[in-house]
Design goal:
With 119 residues, the chain is mainly α. It has 4 helices and no strands.
């Protein structure tokens, strides 16, 4: 039980730190240049053929921050629980990162597609 609480605390600590870091960085990028030049924005807008004028970019930024923070905190918490050598942890983390990035962005993109579909 003690190990579970430690992992839960680690998860939320990493999650909140990464959420605020991503939110701050996206906010700075949005002020400096066009939002369509941000990698995550352009991927979602082009991949799912969304109308830029209809999409609420502030909400999109918060959602991307949430997704990225969840991915990083989940992978770091999961990898810490695996009792193997460091090289296997890195390999598993690398694969898990790609799977989660693809899956969560695909799910979120399909949600956005239903909500803001181009006419």
């Amino acid at each position: 039980m003690n190990e579970f609480m430690y992992q839960l605390i680690w998860f939320f600590l990493v999650f909140f730190i990464m959420f605020f870091v991503y939110s701050f960085l996206l906010k700075r990028k949005m002020k400096k240049r066009k939002s369509s030049n941000i990698g995550e924005f352009s991927y979602l807008l082009h991949r799912f053929r969304l109308d830029v004028k209809k999409v609420d970019l502030k909400k999109l930024g918060w959602s991307i921050s949430f997704i990225n923070a969840f991915i990083i905190s989940f992978v770091s918490s999961f990898i810490m629980m695996i009792p193997t050598s460091m090289i296997w942890r890195l390999v598993i983390a690398f694969v898990l990162l790609f799977v989660l990035i693809y899956a969560l962005y695909e799910i979120y993109g399909r949600y956005l597609q239903k909500k803001y579909k181009k006419d």
